[in-house]
User: Fold these one by one.
Assistant:
Number 1:
Amino acid sequence: MALIVNEKYITVPTVTTAERLALTATNAMLVYDTTLNAFYKYENGAWSAFGGGSSYSRTVINGNTTAANDTDYTLVSSSTITDPSPSEGKGYSVLVRNGTATIGGTGYSTSGQLLWRVYHSGAWATYQLVTQTQLDNKFITVPFISNAFNPLDGTNYFFGGLTNLLTPSTTNTDQDFTLGFAGTIIGGVIQVHGNSVVGSNEDVTWSLRNNTADTTTTIGVFKTNATSTTTVSTAITGTSIAVAATDSICLQINGTWATNPQGLRLTGYLMVRI
């Protein structure tokens, strides 16, 4: 572990990560960590990777390790990562490629997740970059509710969102609305209740009418045979209908019954991924 100097080069002491962390370190120390295959310097009371030139590299983690400040890691198998000696404002990053990264007692296992671990004001904190994959799993709901009506066979009935309490109309521009943001409708829940006549239980088609694009796209099918005191609820997923921020849209149903329901009301919500 000696410093070697000759007329052409200098070789600094080589140590493992465990040996480096066991040193009684003082500022200005410089070593080569053979575990992490990187130069490390002890500066301002903490170890940190000592990069050179314009090159950039990430250190691969495939087993439990103690991190170093100012170092970027890529996790390829489940590991526990221990924080380095604390230094104000310092820390490290971990990209989860495979497995679970246990950092600060919390496990992170989403592939592509990027974590920053930073020491500040006397404590370690973990910050996460929200990836597109994580965003894809999030959505908002747009509610709707209609007044009671008596649907006829083979007739398109249109109704709006945003709890307008209007009676569904046969005119597609009577109850249209805009989302105000671009999104994708990924499903929804439609409920039928309050029927004065139950009606038969044929499938009824629920669609999204886009008046701006002049398109009608099926969301799914549902039943309408509710009673005056019961609700028929249908959840639909797996839909993918793109809507622009300024598109004029409304909801549409169409069915044919052996016995038509009467006095039915529609409530529910659309699930929209932003």
Number 2:
Amino acid sequence: MAFAEKLIAVRHAHHLTQEQLAAKLFVTRQAISRWERGEVTPGIDMMKLIAAVTGEPLSHLIEMPEHYCQSCGMLLTPDDCGTDAAGTANDHYCKWCYDHGEYTYETTMEAMIEDCAPRLAQNTGMSLDEAVSLMGAVLPQLERWRTVQENEERYGAEARARYGDEAIDAANEALLDMNPETWNDMKELERAILGQLSIAMDDGDPKSSEAQKLVAMHRRWIGLNWGSEPQDEAYLGLAHGYLADRRFIDYYDKPCGTGATAFLVQAIESSLTRA
């Protein structure tokens, strides 16, 4: 779908007239009309503003290729695909970012933008500033970077205040360096934990074998997120932090029932006491 069609659909979904959207964007109604007729396309910074005022993900507004690398964002052709651990083509990543089940080099999102933006500008004719702005908008939505970005936005300030920058930076690096196979295992474990939490709650005893199985699964999952299994004190502190944050309570209570977070914390406390 072309940008013009997307803009019309977004505007109608939010019940906005052209005049109302123009006022929110500080542009004229005529500018909105020209965008919707496809006569011109706004620059990346204006698209970011449209996304901000409508709540529409920027990735929905940008005309992205059907298949693109989930690390650098480049167009993927069959010849450019990376490979998984068995050497089979992987259509999520390009061969320059991913080879035989591993990222080809360690980097940060900022370094990736600095490295790739000049080539994007050269290949598309956009300015370097536009290329940097575009990549800064697109990369946080890609698989390799998305979780770290979401975690920083939701919990970054609190986590850094509690655990320090060094610990959080190390956890972020562990996630960024994680290959897709391990990532998929971690997401499967995350879903299994919620199922095991429901099973353990049915027993009703945070000291039961089912509850202790839950703790073992949960602690392993935290270790995958942090890059290493947490020490007892840090793990207990994390658990107690769950009860002080409505977001964590909702994460466990909504799928597993009221009191699920408190039960998990009790099971963790029981496990550490027994140890």
Number 3:
Amino acid sequence: MSKLYIVPTPIGNLDDMTFRAIRVLKEADLILAEDTRTSGKLLKHFEISTHMHSHHMHNEHKTVENLIARLKGGETIALISDAGTPAISDPGFLLTRACVENGIEVDCLPGATAFVPALVNSGLPNDKFIFEGFLPDKKGRQTRYLALAEETRTMILYVSPHKLLKTLAEFIQYFGADRPVSVSREISKLHEETIRGTAEEVLKHFEAKPPKGEIVVVVGGKILKWESSRAWKKIYQLSKSIILIKRFGSNKIKNTKIIMKGRITNKTIKRIDL
């Protein structure tokens, strides 16, 4: 039965390759690779001899129709990128969408991707976050920053080493010098490191030590005004605290558990028991 497999590959450490990924790549009729030279080294290491075709951002628009025809003909195709999970800031979306539209089964294997370890290592809130990938180089860049300046969730971006200093300076301009930032580079590789601090502190670090390698940047979301005051900040950090309130029209103080979800209406805080 024909199927498109989306196969993650290691982002640095070859030990992160899964047994299932190796089996799928060996059994597939064809492997689509972002760069056959880069992927060729990986396949050779794991003794995978399946034939490869090049599939990248410059040719994927032209090749989708032919690949759909081959899948409909009963072939099994595996898609890989240079590193990580295909279609995440890499080629793969167009082919996946075409398969869905044509009723062809798609199976994305779990595996390596750069932004998850970067987010977890950052120490920033990860219960809610947004993935921005690469920001536009010129057109639309300022518009994105203006929108992100109001974003309250943790933000994840991919940044090229030669653009990191510019990007950190833009963080200071649009988000403020005190916005928390975490920069992870060379994840899973020998020289892996994560630098945490304010936007200003992280910029100074990389001005003194020019960045190299693959980089993921994690940025804290905007703190709302009600979270900024001393009392509200305690409530925000300890959301399950017991709050004693006085209801309008009542002289009784009731001991009530409240899970904070924004601002309190029709109620007056009498005392905070933390």
Number 4:
Amino acid sequence: MINFKGDEDAYFLPLSNKHGLSTLLPSKLFTSSIFSFAMRVKVDWDEMASDEVGGMLAINGQHTGILCRKTENGDLFLQCDMWALQKSVENPVSIYCKIEDGTSNDPHWKVDKKDDWYNIVMVVDRDKQKLKFQVNDKYIERDIDGDMVKYIDAMIWLGCCNGLSTCPPEYRWNFKGTISGVGIFLYDILSQDRIEFEREFSQSGEEQVDTDIIPQFTYGKTLGSFFSGTYQDGDFGHREIIFMSNLKEVNSFKIYDESNNGNHFVKYNDEWI
């Protein structure tokens, strides 16, 4: 796992590989009809200032990805953002999950602050025009009105939304907290995991699967192994994975890609760029 302190801690995922070592280029994320971000994180809420945003896994520009937010009055949110082009105007499409102190009377789309670690999944489905967001046992989706803005020249960041020195500090949105798992997939990992779980449920001796009684916060083999950090070769089949790591194979320069696709997150350094 990596502890981000909100200053210069930032990693980026190179979109291409000059040595041809990547078997699935990260740049394909920008043209894929579907992609998913998955993370296991712990936010250092006490270190965040009021009206501060932290980018955990994001595409820079009109920042798209998974973020945390502390408002001026101290409200805490986990959120996913994407930007869509609507009648020639770029507008954000956002989903918010409020972090409560455990006393809320509305449990539908709120998570207790005492849940230190959050299992988070964001899915963008351009074909079905859906934005999906799940935090632990809470799930919600929104329709996307318009096409996702183009990110051909953008970068994928871990620990901020934009770490480039040319980006004004107020828009870098550096993260404060700990990340213990990251995955970037070119398919709807939530839907696939649900299918896997229902298949496992039906094979457990139940004559018929009633999907209404299956708890949402119950993972199939894919997300179960991902969030626990116990996945092995073959757990994800031959599906398209751009990057996956439980952040154990890390050195001073990079986070190694455990999907065997050769896409390593690199520690950002102005001189290296």
